[in-house]
Design the sequence.
RNA sequence: GUGGCCGUAGCUCAGUCUGGUAGAGCACCUGGUUGUGGUCCAGGAUGUCGCGGGUUCAAGUCCCGUCGGUCACC
């Protein structure tokens, strides 16, 4: 009995719908997972997330190991209890920080300088697993090396191979049986490397697979090709998680190619910067054109923000840097992506995903509003 | 009343000594941010240089006058 299982409930072309079962319940896929780096999705709380119908959230090993420390969280009863979230949680391993914080990478592990106090911090495949076991998420990730693109092919290949070696070490380090450890596929935008990485990773029999190293500046065409290459080698009965992907078009592209899970800071970060995702395209709430606009952010949205507040009011709050603006815009953007995935699931079941995809793209086009 | 200082973009002010394309920060108007540092970056619009006269090829800058503000002293 593995902690994490996934089963397909319907499909339309390559797109697929399913159930992801975890110790904290079932999540319908495809699903978007809000990012709660330090045990909180910025600007919103767990009640807000439930109102949005968030099924699962992500938290971050690197940030939580520094503060408050996984030992503290373990003593406090684990991450679920700590953050008052009784639905599934996925923790990222710190692999992305390998990319974003530019640490020293050695075969043993990676060495960072702490972003909190400047102290040297080391993360190895074994310690990444140990820390994630202390945090107690339902799904944990292997420590990988995410290479910034573009990068020399030799570097992409070498770090993809290092990720494979580290994946083995993570499996050997795992002690808890009530968590699902996902492997991560690397290989940049080279389809051959993606195939190789996926084949080797799939042989390790993980209960699910992350596709990492994307959404780091590559074109949509390159990303889709990399996803397709990786998928060709992945088992059909395991969930596929595209790490860091969050732009609406990218999500639908990935769902069309059989991807099941996504996480991204985009909806919440954009919210804090005034950018709003809507069915008729993105808009910037600080723009002057909304000064006297009494409509909702998105006519087709039923979120708390769209039910109660006007664009004019939200523009005012945002320009005045009122904390409430961040909460309300975050609620909306998270709702938009959550609802987009819900609509995709329905379309898959009804067998009209292609129509859904075409309509989505048409209405998102600039000026179509 | 006398003396000093100040008056330049919506705001706060550089630039005046030593004349040579009207500037900065903030604010304003746009764009960017993908396994999170509420940041940051990039671009754009903005002028009766208080007013009047003079000197000069050329004045925000030098000279004279004047108006307004402010401080000190009577």
Sequence:
């Amino acid at each position: 009995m593995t902690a994490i299982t996934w089963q397909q409930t319907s499909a339309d072309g390559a797109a697929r719908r399913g159930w992801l079962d975890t110790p904290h319940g079932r999540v319908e896929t495809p699903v978007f997972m809000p990012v709660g780096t330090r045990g909180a999705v910025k600007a919103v709380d767990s009640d807000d997330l439930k109102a949005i119908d968030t099924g699962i959230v992500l938290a971050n090993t690197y940030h939580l190991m520094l503060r408050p420390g996984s030992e503290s969280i373990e003593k406090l009863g684990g991450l679920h209890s700590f953050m008052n979230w009784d639905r599934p949680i996925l923790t990222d391993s710190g692999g992305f920080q390998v990319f974003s914080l530019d640490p020293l990478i050695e075969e043993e592990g990676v060495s960072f300088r702490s972003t909190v106090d400047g102290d040297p911090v080391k993360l190895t495949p074994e310690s990444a697993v140990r820390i994630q076991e202390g945090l107690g998420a339902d799904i944990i990730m292997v420590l990988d090396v995410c290479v910034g693109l573009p990068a020399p092919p030799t570097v992409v290949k070498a770090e993809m191979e290092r990720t494979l070696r580290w994946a083995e070490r993570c499996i050997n380090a795992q002690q808890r049986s009530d968590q699902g450890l996902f492997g991560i596929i690397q290989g940049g935008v080279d389809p051959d490397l993606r195939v190789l990485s996926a084949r080797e990773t799939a042989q390790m029999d993980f209960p699910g697979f992350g596709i990492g190293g994307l959404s780091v500046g590559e074109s949509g065409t390159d990303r889709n090709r990399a996803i397709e290459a990786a998928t060709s080698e992945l088992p059909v009965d395991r969930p596929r998680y595209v790490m860091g992907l969050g732009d609406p078009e990218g999500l639908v592209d990935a769902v069309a190619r059989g991807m099941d899970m996504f996480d991204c800071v985009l909806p919440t970060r954009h919210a804090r910067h005034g950018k709003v995702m809507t069915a008729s395209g993105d808009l910037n709430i600080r723009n002057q054109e909304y000064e006297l606009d009494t409509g909702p952010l998105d006519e087709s949205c039923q979120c708390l923000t769209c039910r109660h507040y006007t664009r004019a009011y939200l523009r005012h709050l945002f320009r005045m840097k009122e904390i409430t603006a961040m909460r309300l815009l975050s609620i909306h953007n998270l709702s938009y992506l959550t609802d987009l995935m819900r609509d995709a699931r329905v379309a898959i079941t009804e067998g009209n995903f292609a129509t859904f995809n075409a309509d989505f793209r048409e209405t998102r086009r600039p000026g179509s509003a």
User: Anything to note?
Assistant: The mean pLDDT of chain A is 95. The two ends of chain A are 50 Å apart (CA to CA).
